[in-house]
Amino acid sequence: MIAATVCLPGAARSSPQPAFPPSAAWVQISTDELREGYDTLWAVSDVHGRLEQLERLLVGSGLAVYGASTLAWNPSRGRQLLIVAGDLIDGGRDSVGTALLLEDLQRGAAAAGSRLVVLLGNHEVEFLARPGSAGGALLASARRPAARLGPAEEMNGEQLYASAFGRYLRTLPVAAFVGTWLFAHAGYVDAEGGAAGTRAYFARIAEAAARGECGPLLERTSILAYHDWWKSGRNRSRMRKRLRRLGLNGLVIGHDPDALRSKGAIAIDRQGWLMKLDTGMKTGAAGMLLRCEVSDIAHGGELTMAERGAAKCRAMAPDGSLHELARE
Ligand SMILES: [Mn+2]
Asked: How far is the CA of 201 from the centre of ligand 1 (A)?
């Protein structure tokens, strides 16, 4: 439910901030909060059950360390913000283990003065909408050691839905507003009618989420599901306008490994407002982490992706090496 509010978050700030009513369907971190709380913004998407690859990325970045038995957030890495932009499951053999590791790491990050934000992808929503149709690989991942779901007995989809795994997925938000950038799995906002229409789209998502309904998120053109929208110049210019009307100037997406025609790489578009994260971990690629220094991207009340044609963020490989973003 959207509560009526007389004082939207950020309304009293001098810098332009996207102000949405608080909702479990999204996370909001203002530019000021980002600058005050964090040194580095990290992002990854489409891990798709590739737990070992995710662990290598997190260890390579120094964000996580191996503890006694499992991976843990590095207690000495404070002031780090990591966004995981959906599709944790389906692909590799550790779907359940990947989600439950991220839940653990969220607690560890908070204890270290960092924050891990995990967003829904279409694969999570498809499972939540139809747990009875869960595939064999997802069910089998619940019996692997990394899942730590207790007795290694066979679970059906409904039991998996009722388990710690299903409970965790049901807490995940759809989107993150970080400074003036929107992070969302597919990223398209299918709304007409200017800022009011776009706000109404998010309000519909919040209302559906509050009722536990997956329907709007499963639509072909939803913010979690719309494949290949970025191929259309018309869709892109519409999206850029919609974001601008809300005070946003950047969009970070996953979902399409070939987005911005940059398969296997984290990439940025030529105009410097759209970044894609999916590097193809689903089909076995090692993966990359987006790394942005907050002091490089924060300017006044806004975040900037590129300046004079040069991208401000880098892509980190599992060995810790940093690379220029691919350009579309
Ligand atoms: Mn996807």
From this structure: 20
Model-wide pTM > 0.85: yes
**Greatest C-alpha distance within the chain:** 57
DSSP-based three-state secondary structure for 121? coil
Domain encompassing residue 271:
26-327
Structure confidence by residue, pLDDT tens digits, 150-179: 666 689 999 999 999 999 999 999 999 999
Q: How do residues 91-112 score in pLDDT, each as one tens digit?
A: 999 999 999 999 999 999 999 9
Alpha carbon 327 to chain centroid, angstroms: 21
Cite the beta strand spans of 74-180 per DSSP E: 80-85, 115-119, 175-178
CA of 123 to the centre of ligand 1 (A): 6
Contact between residue 56 and residue 279 where contact means Cβ atoms under 8 Å apart: no
The CATH number of the domain where 295 resides is what? 3.60.21.10
190-239, pLDDT tens digit by residue? 998 889 999 999 999 999 999 999 999 999 999 999 999 999 999 999 99
Domain presence at residue 50: yes
Number of domains in the chain: 1
- Residue pair 140/93 in contact (Cβ under 8 Å)? The answer is yes
Q: What is the whole-number distance in angstroms between the Cα of residue 255 and the centre of ligand 1?
A: 4
**276 Cα: distance to centroid of ligand 1 (angstroms):** 12
Q: Is residue 99 part of a domain?
A: yes
7 falls within a domain: no
Within-domain flag for 229: yes
Expressed in angstroms and rounded, the spacing between residue 214 Cα and the centre of ligand 1 is: 15
Average pLDDT score, the chain = 93
